[in-house]
Amino acid sequence: ANLPIGKNYIPFFHHPAYPVLAGHTGSVSVIDNFVPQFKRLGVKLVFTGHNHGYDRNEKDGITYVTAGGGGAPLYPCGSLSGPKQACVSDYHYVQCAIKKTVITCQAKLIDGMFVDSVTVTYPSSI
User: Fold this and answer.
1) Would you say 94 and 118 are in contact if contact means Cβ atoms under 8 Å apart?
2) First to last CA, the chain
3) Nearest 10 degrees: CA dihedral of 97, 98, 99, 105?
4) Which spans in the chain are helix H?
5) Which helix (H) or strand (E) is 112 found in, with range?
6) How much is the pLDDT for 7?
């Protein structure tokens, strides 16, 4: 699709581009076909599933969150290579709050225990 620039896009789809969980590797198709569009469109936050657990990774100013801890057997965490990564091999949910241009998301275990947080800022109100 030829989407217009200047909108605040938050893609959500199945296969991750840059996972930290040691389940499925990054999708070459997503990296080749979608990531260039994310960069062109100014995407700041992407949600995916596929890997069973939670992870967060940042690449080229885009934060990728895998929220796949909903009930299937969990995958172990892979190696963390930087401060802009997180991984939790546990059942969880991700709760986000939007205030004008700022989105703050918290990953919490099923019992509500906090495990990770990420904040991104878009150029105009969401």
Assistant:
1) no
2) 21
3) 50
4) 28-33, 35-41
5) none
6) 85
Task: Decide the pairing of beta strands 114-121 and 102-109.
Answer: antiparallel
Lookup result for tokens 């469109």: 41
For residue 24, give the H/E element and its range.
Answer: none
Percentage of the chain modeled with pLDDT above 90: 82
> Smallest Cα–Cα separation from 58: which of 45, 75, 49?
45
Amino acid residing at 80: L
DSSP character at residue 12: B
CA-CA distance, 35 to 46, in Å (whole number)? 10
- Put simply, whether the predicted model's pTM sits higher than 0.90 gets the answer yes
Strand ranges for 49-124 from DSSP E: 54-59, 62-67, 85-88, 92-99, 102-109, 114-121
The per-residue pLDDT for range 28-60, each reduced to its tens digit, is 999 999 999 999 999 999 999 999 999 999 999
